[in-house]
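Exercise: predict the structure of this protein bound to glutamic acid.
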Amino acid sequence: MAELQKKVRVRIAPSPTGDPHVGTAYVGLINYVFARQQGGKFILRIEDTDQSRSRPEYEAAIIESLRWLGLNWDEGPDIGGPYKPYRQSERKEIYQSYAEALLKDDRAYYCFCTPERLAQMRSEKLSRKELAGYDGLCLGLDPEEAKKRRDSGEPAVTRLKIPRPGETVLSDRIRKEIRFDHKNIDDQVLLKSDGLPTYHLANVIDDHLMKITHVIRAEEWITSTPKHLILYQALGWEPPEFIHLPLLRNPDGSKISKRKNPVSLNYYREMGFLPEAMRNFLGLLGWTMPDEREIFSLEEMITNFSFERISPAGPVFDLEKLKWLNGNYIRTLPDQELLRRIQEQVFPEERLKKILPLIRERLELLSQCLDVADFFFLGEVHPDLPDLIPKKKSASEAAAMLSQSQEVLESLVSWESADIEDALRRFCQEKGYQIKELFMTLRVAITGKRATPPVCESMEIVGKAITIARISLAITALKRAPK
Ligand code: GLU
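Solution:
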């Protein structure tokens, strides 16, 4: 299938609000493969307009993990390109000018409703079992009058005027035509009262200005797409083609979630999955080779790829399959290369140097080093269940304490031992847990033992993703414990 008319330009647009997600890698792979097949460009754009949740550390982690996976982009915040900047927080003025144009053309309007009024309106609508969208109170305001109020400093958001009655039709290559009745589409906020754009406005403007030809993204954005199509029309722009990829699922069929599957790309890297196996695995999610072969290289995928072979049914993220694939790749690596990868991944000198001061005091023989330090190098540890349970607590109380502390750890942006310790001490104070109890349970969950080097320093070296995964394993074991 040749996309003859235009030079293909595709993008991924992750928001740096958490650890790099396997879903981003999956969408990234499909975009990358399509771009390479079509001789087009693959672009990385960082959508960091949600200032309260976006962090530069997460952006750096996304970039590093996508590079590890081998998905190299042609334009992006780290390498620049003809449509820079590629970070939305640096493009605010652009969005504001288009919002103003929309207001001028009567395609958008100021809304002065207070958060309290909106909350009340929503709950009233919900109690009448209606859709919770905006009720249009400010739609009738005289635009001149509204502009005056706004200019005099009254807080207002800018909303998209959805033409009603009306209908928007989305034709998506991997699913049937979807029709959206405009009466069910909310008058989307485009610009917030602080002048910052919402995802919808920034996303559409950037896709247009960056000359994106195909928006290939996850299924969860389908409900946003009619708003985007209406925006393109309001701005007088031709929309790109939209292709929505199926959502990845846990083995029980639910949307992939960190409670049931590790979702951080860092986990896969730190556990020792090979990037080539990971790419192969992601490629197999929902897509099949014409000859149904399961093991294929990136080059082979690029040659054979077509959207028609993607099934819209959500593929299961099957860890066992990934391990099987990884084993296959490991077996075919030449000895020298396998050695290099083990050294790089499991025994990097940096890590050994950090471990040394923690174990020195505990050694009488060099040969004991693995006895005291094994957990730094292992993927999983399997502690004895009773060791995980503090004296005066039940298994389920221990599980609850672990899962609350896991949330605290997950939300940490810095993974340095001092920050980990600070956060856990604060957590204990808030929840009334004893620090000693929590640290012992965490120590056992993370190291498998009761006597180890200091637990927060150990966590730092074990790494965030593996720490979180080991806590999950301990929680599962505790939940299965006989009552
Ligand atoms: N910023 C959105 C995300 O985090 C981008 C969605 C899109 O591709 O339009 O996934």
